[in-house]
């Protein structure tokens, strides 16, 4: 869990993902469309990916635990929470406050 939190605090937006996950792709694409350049950690390509996956599963309380999105070092959640924030017009202000967007 320490490694996950350390990585999550290194950039304004951090996404823990699996390269073959369609929902992960959707979240990464959303951030790209919004002009955000998140740090992406593909768990299936990382030697410590299984350990991070277990830590994220504990934090999120779901399996699979990806995508797991951190904004401003805080866990936002998975696809459902990110999309809910976006549809409620709360995602962009959150990204601005975290320094992920300039406009």
UniProtKB/TrEMBL annotation:
Subcellular locations according to the entry: Cytoplasm
Alphabetized InterPro entries for the sequence: GlrX-like_pln_2, Glutaredoxin, Thioredoxin-like_sf
GO annotation, cellular component aspect: cytoplasm
Top-level taxon in the UniProt lineage: Eukaryota
Sequence ranges assigned to domain Glutaredoxin in this UniProt record: 13-76
Keywords attached to this entry: Cytoplasm, Electron transport, Redox-active center, Transport
Entry-linked CDD domains: GRX_GRXh_1_2_like (cd03419)
Function comment: Has a glutathione-disulfide oxidoreductase activity in the presence of NADPH and glutathione reductase. Reduces low molecular weight disulfides and proteins.
Family indicated by similarity: Belongs to the glutaredoxin family. CC-type subfamily.
UniProt name for this protein: Glutaredoxin
Organism listed in the record: Musa troglodytarum (fe'i banana)
